[in-house]
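User: quick one, sequence for these tokens?
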């Protein structure tokens, strides 16, 4: 799926995981590890779902990076590493498997690339739709956004506690 959907999943995971981290204590190492793993799993789930790519890769990557920077800026200091690790988990499969190809296409260069590691990027298991029939993809994107929004909504009070006052 487009990076922005993986970032949306990351914010959703953060809204749940950060619930216990509203006091400015040191965060347990296990919370970081499990949060990263949740991010990677969410990537797998989203990539298995049948999907097209409503945003082209250049816009997607630039917009995604911009959103990540904003998120890192708006959260309180003691949870900056937590959200960074969650977002890294959410996008690391694409960084590992796809970044040389994306960089080649953006900058017109010739970085070497290898076979994909993550099964949801294999042709047989990926939900990528290769014909242009994207109706089911739009429904799936919408469901993903509604699902994430509802979870974030239920965690909004806690989320506010870990955001900087603007
Ligand atoms: Zn992917």
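Assistant:
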């Amino acid at each position: 799926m487009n990076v922005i959907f993986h970032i949306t999943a990351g914010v959703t995971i953060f809204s749940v995981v950060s619930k216990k981290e509203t006091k400015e204590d040191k965060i347990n190492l296990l919370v970081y590890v499990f949060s990263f793993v949740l991010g990677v799993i969410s990537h797998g789930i989203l990539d298995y779902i049948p999907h097209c790519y409503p945003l082209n890769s250049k816009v997607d990557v630039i917009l995604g990076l911009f959103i990540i920077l904003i998120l890192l800026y708006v959260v309180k200091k003691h949870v900056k590493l937590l959200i960074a690790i969650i977002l890294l988990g959410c996008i690391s499969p694409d960084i590992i498997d796809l970044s040389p190809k994306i960089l080649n296409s953006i900058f017109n260069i010739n970085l070497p690339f290898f076979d994909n590691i993550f099964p949801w990027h294999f042709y047989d298991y990926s939900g990528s739709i290769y014909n242009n029939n994207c109706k089911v993809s739009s429904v799936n994107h919408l469901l993903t956004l509604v699902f994430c929004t509802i979870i974030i909504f239920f965690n909004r009070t806690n989320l506010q506690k870990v955001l900087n006052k603007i």
